[in-house]
Amino acid sequence: MTEQxxxxxxxxxxxxxxxxxxxxxxxxxxxxYRIREGDKTREQDFRGDVIQIxxxxxxxxxxxxxxxxxxxxxxxxxxSNPNIAAIKVIKRGRVRRARLYYLRNLVGKKARIKExxxxxxxxxxxxxxx
Length: 130
Fold this sequence. Notes:
This protein is α+β, with helices and mostly antiparallel strands. It has helices spanning 3-14, 121-129, and strands at residues 28-37, 40-54, 61-68, 71-78, 84-91. The protein has two helices and five strands; from the N terminus they run αβββββα.
């Protein structure tokens, strides 16, 4: 047994990957995660733009960036983190890069990401009504 096969076996048995929606860099998402404070647990939302997805397999991570009171806040989440309760995609972003580090230097309207317009169900509904 090679080292890579052993790593795959360990990842398969120990790490479970929950079902999350597909998203990519540039998308705006809400990550709901569980926080333990003493003996109580609560859920908190972290809403922001995905600036990168890194890694492969069960050790993949993604970085979410938001502006809170004028200060940029980034948080790195692992896909296999059991404390993540849910991920919801708010809007799809139209970007041309996989890593959006340039957003760190932009402020205000310049830091906006254009929304990807999808003509799926809304266009079909509009054409059937008229």
